[in-house]
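ok so I'm stuck.
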Amino acid sequence: MTYYHTKPTDIGNTVTMKNGGYYEKVHPETGCPQLQYAGGGPIGFAIADTPAISGSVSPEASLFAVLFNTKQTGEYHIYETSKEPDLDISNCGHDFGIMEEVRWENPAETPIEFTKHTSVCVPRHAIKDILYAYLGNPHNPNILWAEQIKNGLSDLIDGNEYPTQLWEQWDKEPVFQPGFIPDGPSSTTLTKDGYLKEDTPQRPQHG
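replied:
not stuck anymore, here's the structure
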């Protein structure tokens, strides 16, 4: 099986990755990351002690995950590997399923060989669509809308244009509510036309 990892910079056609990050801790019984709660509300995910490289089951999910973090247009580079991951949380809740996330642990000890799958240029309206998917909840996007975004990213990866009016391919137009998206101590503000005014804190994903 092939897995994917996306970078916002071109690191070559063939690359060995050995620098991991520290991501959300996976519960040993459920096999999924779990939010921690205090004072009646969520306070975020526990962070794992083991470094890992994260990736996705599909190239469009990998691209979606990185765009969620960077919130930037431009060229992105998708890499692939056949190495089986140590963790597969692609069926977990929150947005881990949307991102189809997998992880390779301790890459400094067992480096991962990747080859470039393709490069794409991401337009501004794709970023806006992802921001809209998370309106109101920084951990749980609108799943139907997020899947439509991934379909649009898949078209882009296949050499077509990302749809300018994505909801025309859906059975209804999403309800857009420009404003604040709460996410920790700071938040993202969208103008009425959806343009980003300030960034949300990044989740430690797909570094």
